[in-house]
Amino acid sequence: MNIKILTPEYVVFEGEVNSVLLPGKNGEFHIMKNHAGIVSSLIGGKVKLYVNSVNEIYAKRFTKENEKDSVFSYQIKSGVVEFNHNKGIILCE
């Protein structure tokens, strides 16, 4: 599935991921391939991408969660996510 993460200043990430874990108002939620369409607000926390690798262009903005799994995180203050037809966009600050 394709995910794009945007801030007002720059594109944080754009590419294929296996899944994404997001900080929602009612707790974290996981979006996986073929997930139902969703629009949700996000609170401060970590956006975690489950991906084989992150392109060099974007890697400097991410923290690798551990060496064993390919989980990369990006800290946000707030935002909104829209996901439909295996394409998602996360607008955040």
TrEMBL record:
Residues 1-57 form the ATP synthase F1 complex delta/epsilon subunit N-terminal domain. Its main location: membrane. It is found in: Endomembrane system. It comes from the Bacteria. GO terms for molecular function: proton-transporting ATP synthase activity, rotational mechanism. One of its GO terms (cellular component) is proton-transporting ATP synthase complex. It is a peripheral membrane protein. SUPFAM superfamilies: Epsilon subunit of F1F0-ATP synthase N-terminal domain. The keyword Transmembrane helix does not apply. Pfam families: ATP-synt_DE_N (PF02823). Keywords: ATP synthesis, CF(1), Ion transport, Membrane, Transport. Produces ATP from ADP in the presence of a proton gradient across the membrane. Belongs to the ATPase epsilon chain family. This is F-type H+-transporting ATPase subunit epsilon.
